[in-house]
Structure formats: C-alpha cells, structure tokens
Write a structure and sequence with these properties.
Elements lengths: L16 E5 L3 H13 L3 E5 L2 H12 L5
C-alpha cells in the first residue's frame, strides 16, 4: 500500500497540517482550498471516527 502524507508519522510537517472535520462536503472542500492556498497540508474528514483512526495510526497507538 502506498503511503500518503496523512499516513506518515508526526514530525516537522505537522506544524503545517490542519485536519478539517465537517459533515458537509462543500464546506470541507472550501476550507481545503483556502488552507492549501496558504501552504498548509489540509486533510478532510466527514466524521469523527475517520479522524480518530488516522490520529491513532499516526501516533502509533493500536485501535481501541
């Protein structure tokens, strides 16, 4: 499986990362465009479970 920026362990890049959590796709996309234009790494999530899964994976914690 190919690793993406979201799958990488936390490091210096995380200073420019923003996680966007919103159930409306249009709102997520609007924020993503704005933040990426400002040179942030923007990662969008439609629900809390998806955000928590990625956070656990990146911090090296097993699923609970």
């Amino acid at each position: 499986m190919m690793k993406t920026a979201i799958d990488r362990p936390l490091k210096r890049q995380s200073e420019r990362e923003v996680f966007i959590l919103d159930d409306e796709a249009s709102a997520r996309e609007a924020w993503r465009v704005i933040l990426e234009h400002a040179e942030y790494y923007a990662f969008c999530f439609a629900d809390e479970l998806a955000l928590l899964e990625i956070t656990r994976r990146r911090c090296g914690r097993p699923d609970s």
